[in-house]
Design brief:
Layout: H1 2-22, H2 26-29, E1 35-40, H3 42-45, H4 50-59, E2 62-65, H5 71-74, H6 84-95, E3 99-107, H7 126-143, E4 148-155, H8 168-173, H9 177-188, E5 193-198, H10 204-219, E6 226-233, H11 240-252, E7 256-264, H12 296-315, E8 320-325, H13 358-369
Parallel strand pairs: 1-2, 1-8, 2-3, 3-4, 4-5, 5-6, 6-7, 7-8
Bound molecules: (3S,4R)-3-hydroxy-2-oxopiperidin-4-yl beta-D-xylopyranoside (XIL).
(3S,4R)-3-hydroxy-2-oxopiperidin-4-yl beta-D-xylopyranoside binds near residues 66, 155, 230, 261 and 334.
Length: about 375
């Protein structure tokens, strides 16, 4: 009898301990700080990659679609919308009570050609492009009204020197395409948060134009809730100081900051941290040095870099709405193919076996210490 009691006490203690340990998630640790999210690819959205899905449910409080809500997928032909994948993505988020993000309404990349051209292949008039933008935005935002809580309304419209990217949107409509996009989104779902999202958004030239954009939108009575700073970060660049200055400048302009698309590449970069997806560099063995694993010193350096950035995010948690990783595990990261195809990179929090890296526990502790 005594032995049975002892056994059951021990079992209880063990399960109790495990239960506590399994609660030990990023989602829980960061719950009073900011949302912590991940991008989802199609295997995850369809539920076939069950290992990833388990991690996403346990660890993350927010999700964004890595590709399936971009215009070339949602409206491949004019007026022909394809919603199957996006619907499943939003259902997953609803079911798991996640803060769902829509990415992205107006972007020059991964946009279908028909958007900008007439049947002879010439640029459409500004009137036609406005109507197409309005139809695209209204149809999508209305469909997920109240469910998608925030939209990347415009993506990557400003260059590092602060000038506007000479995209088709800009060529046909000038700077006006940005306020128009925000206005259409706001009309379709007045309660959704609306964001401007870009890479290298710590570059002083970009910061200047983006803060000006925020002020212009606000002056026109158009809503913008946050600036999304894509965080495709390298080992050496940007510096914490550069990043911090940008967060403070955006906060001063009256918006929150979303840290979006976070991944820290462990590999050498041919040019810094641009994430312009049409730029590609030829494969070169020298640029793929860690095919069989990260050396200890690089791994430590990489972990320190993650910790330093999270310390910064926690320090500015009042100004930060969300931190979203650009994927779950290293094997699925776009960084293995960008900017050089066919490399082995280590940018995310879970390894190629879907095991959490030691950094996960460290980030959890960091968040808990700051409580
Ligand atoms: C990337 C995806 O991760 C890839 O799967 C796809 O092939 C190209 O686009 N900036 C963005 C993201 O806003 O949508 C991009 O995502 C990465 C750069």
């Amino acid at each position: 009898m005594k032995r049975i009691m002892l056994w059951s006490i021990m079992t209880f203690a063990a399960t109790g301990f495990n239960a506590q340990k399994s609660d030990n998630s990023l989602k829980k640790a960061f719950q009073n700080k900011f949302y912590i999210g991940t991008a989802m690819n199609l295997d995850q959205i369809h539920g076939t990659d069950t290992k990833s899905v388990d991690i996403i449910k346990k660890q993350f409080s927010s999700i964004v679609a890595e590709n399936c809500m971009k215009s070339m997928y949602l409206q491949p032909k004019e007026g022909q919308f394809f919603f199957d994948d996006a619907d499943q993505f939003v259902e997953f988020g609803d079911k798991n009570k996640m803060f769902i993000i829509g990415h992205t309404l107006i972007w020059h990349s991964q946009a279908p050609d028909w958007f900008f051209t007439d049947k002879n292949g010439n640029n459409v008039s500004s009137k036609v492009l406005k109507q197409r933008m309005k139809d695209h935005i209204t149809t999508i935002v209305s469909r997920y009204k109240g469910r998608v809580k925030g939209w990347d309304v415009v993506n990557e419209a400003i260059l590092e020197d602060g000038s506007y990217r000479k995209s088709k949107f800009y060529e046909i409509l000038g700077e006006e395409f940005i306020p128009l996009a925000f206005q259409y989104a706001q009309e379709a779902d007045p309660n959704a948060e609306l964001y401007y999202n870009d890479y290298n958004e710590w570059h002083p030239g970009k910061v200047k134009t983006v803060t000006q954009l925020v002020k212009n939108l606000k002056a026109k009575g158009i809503r913008i809730d946050a600036v999304g700073m894509q965080a495709h970060i390298g080992m050496d660049s940007p510096s914490i100081g550069e990043y911090e200055k940008a967060i403070l400048d955006y906060a001063k302009a009256g918006v929150k900051v979303n840290i979006t698309e976070l991944d820290i590449s462990a590999l050498p970069s041919p040019w810094g941290t641009s994430a312009n997806i049409s730029d590609k560099v030829q494969y070169d063995e020298k640029m793929n040095p860690y095919r069989n694993g990260l050396p200890k010193d690089v791994q430590i350096q990489w972990e320190n870099r993650y910790e330093d950035f999270f310390k910064l995010f926690l320090k500015h948690k009042k100004n930060i709405r969300r931190v979203t990783l650009w994927g779950v595990s290293d094997n699925l990261s776009w960084k293995n193919d960008f900017p050089i195809k066919g490399r082995t990179d280590y940018p995310l929090l879970f390894d190629r076996q879907y095991k959490s890296k030691p950094i996960v526990g460290k980030l959890i502790r960091l968040a808990e210490e700051g409580r």
